[in-house]
């Protein structure tokens, strides 16, 4: 009833490609190949973790407290229970409950939902891998990430060197470990140790032309500086390590650096692909950190600050072993390993602004 796109030139209109992916798959064989590779990458992740003794689990998508990340949630209502619920923004706190319960190696690959903007590496719903291993720390997780990503590159692309635009990204381990403070100082000239509170760092950010909000928490300001001065330069795979406590309410304090935590983020092609830390397992410290987040929301109007999950705190009080946790954005990882420059090219049905599609026979009736 409708003609297919002309096969010789393919389907090139970007809006049509994303809105009518079925036509894109018919007209452009290379698009279908990207999604075949995506499937192979996800299968490879499962195989890698299963071989290391992890078990795959499922945790709730509808949750009473949207905690475990800095993000605004989507809100819904459960009619039978007459309760407000949220789409999960992370799987972290439920997976750590399982660590408390004695499942020492767990992971989940699933959709999470964050009510935020859309750009070349953000979509409101995305696929996230989270894994937790008892008696591990962020150093062992770093080694696992290097091994996982390099093995996926070798399996999917036949090489640990992958083309991304005009860059060749080399995933061969080991990846450099870069101190967050030292790298930010080197790139911006700012030593964040000289700015111990939000007010002083806000003034400095204004001097740098970063246009901070009138009230913005210190951790948010540091994150903004990283986005401007550091992240765009992390083209080759690298670990940025040892984050300020202000930025990491769920991470364990660094034993040798007061005010810092054992956390890393992995970057490649100027984009974050993984986040990890040695998990905080002291319930009293965690309770205080949650309180700080609530204060951050009230004092600075930060709607993305983390939220207190009282049931999770109760679970911690029964005893949580030292744990190494990891989160990897599957969509961004697929972008890197398939050489795609936008997240929409690795999502079969990316989020788009809604348009009204009118059947051809109804057009004249609507326009008369």
From TrEMBL:
<keyword id="KW-0648">Protein biosynthesis</keyword>
<dbReference type="Pfam" id="PF00152">
    <property type="entry name" value="tRNA-synt_2"/>
</dbReference>
<dbReference type="InterPro" id="IPR004364">
    <property type="entry name" value="Aa-tRNA-synt_II"/>
</dbReference>
<keyword id="KW-0030">Aminoacyl-tRNA synthetase</keyword>
<keyword id="KW-0479">Metal-binding</keyword>
<dbReference type="InterPro" id="IPR045864">
    <property type="entry name" value="aa-tRNA-synth_II/BPL/LPL"/>
</dbReference>
<keyword id="KW-0547">Nucleotide-binding</keyword>
<dbReference type="GO" id="GO:0000049">
    <property type="term" value="F:tRNA binding"/>
</dbReference>
<dbReference type="GO" id="GO:0004824">
    <property type="term" value="F:lysine-tRNA ligase activity"/>
</dbReference>
<protein>
    <recommendedName>
        <fullName>lysine--tRNA ligase</fullName>
        <ecNumber>6.1.1.6</ecNumber>
    </recommendedName>
</protein>
<dbReference type="InterPro" id="IPR002313">
    <property type="entry name" value="Lys-tRNA-ligase_II"/>
</dbReference>
<dbReference type="InterPro" id="IPR018149">
    <property type="entry name" value="Lys-tRNA-synth_II_C"/>
</dbReference>
<keyword id="KW-0436">Ligase</keyword>
<comment type="similarity">
    <text>Belongs to the class-II aminoacyl-tRNA synthetase family.</text>
</comment>
<dbReference type="GO" id="GO:0006430">
    <property type="term" value="P:lysyl-tRNA aminoacylation"/>
</dbReference>
<dbReference type="GO" id="GO:0005829">
    <property type="term" value="C:cytosol"/>
</dbReference>
<dbReference type="GO" id="GO:0046872">
    <property type="term" value="F:metal ion binding"/>
</dbReference>
<keyword id="KW-0067">ATP-binding</keyword>
<dbReference type="InterPro" id="IPR006195">
    <property type="entry name" value="aa-tRNA-synth_II"/>
</dbReference>
<feature type="domain" description="Aminoacyl-transfer RNA synthetases class-II family profile">
    <location>
        <begin position="35"/>
        <end position="350"/>
    </location>
</feature>
<dbReference type="GO" id="GO:0005524">
    <property type="term" value="F:ATP binding"/>
</dbReference>
<keyword id="KW-0963">Cytoplasm</keyword>
């Amino acid at each position: 009833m409708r003609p297919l796109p002309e096969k010789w030139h393919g389907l090139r209109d970007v809006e049509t490609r994303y809105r009518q992916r079925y036509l894109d798959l018919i007209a452009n064989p290379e698009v279908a190949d990207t999604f075949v590779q995506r499937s192979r990458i996800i299968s490879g992740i499962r195989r890698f973790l299963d071989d290391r003794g992890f078990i795959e689990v499922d945790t709730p998508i509808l949750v009473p407290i949207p905690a475990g990340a800095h993000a605004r949630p989507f809100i819904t209502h459960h009619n039978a229970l007459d309760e407000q619920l949220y789409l999960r923004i992370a799987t972290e706190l439920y997976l750590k409950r399982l660590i408390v319960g004695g499942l020492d190696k767990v992971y989940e690959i699933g959709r999470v939902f964050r009510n935020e903007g859309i750009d070349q590496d953000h979509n409101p719903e995305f696929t996230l891998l989270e894994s937790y291993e008892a008696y591990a720390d962020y150093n062992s997780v770093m080694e696992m990430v290097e091994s996982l990503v390099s093995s996926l590159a070798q399996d999917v692309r036949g090489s640990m060197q992958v083309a991304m635009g005009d860059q060749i990204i080399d995933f061969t381990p080991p990846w450099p470990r870069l101190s967050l403070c030292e790298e930010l100082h080197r790139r911006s000239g700012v030593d964040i140790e000289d700015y111990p509170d939000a007010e002083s760092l806000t003034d400095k950010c204004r001097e740098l032309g970063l246009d901070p909000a009138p009230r913005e928490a210190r951790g948010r300001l540091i994150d903004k500086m990283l986005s401007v001065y550091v992240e765009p330069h992390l083209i080759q795979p690298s670990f940025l390590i040892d984050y300020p406590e202000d930025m990491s309410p769920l991470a364990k304090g660094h034993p040798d650096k007061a005010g810092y935590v054992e956390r890393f983020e992995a970057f490649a092609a100027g984009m974050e692909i993984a986040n990890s830390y040695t998990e905080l397992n002291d319930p009293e410290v965690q309770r205080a950190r949650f309180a700080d987040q609530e204060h951050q929301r009230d004092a600075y109007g930060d709607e993305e600050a983390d939220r207190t999950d009282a049931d999770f705190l109760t679970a911690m009080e029964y005893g949580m072993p030292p744990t190494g946790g990891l989160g990897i954005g599957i969509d961004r990882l697929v972008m890197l390993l398939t050489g795609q420059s936008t997240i929409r090219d690795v999502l079969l049905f990316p989020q788009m602004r809604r348009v009204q599609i009118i059947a051809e026979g109804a057009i004249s009736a609507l326009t008369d």
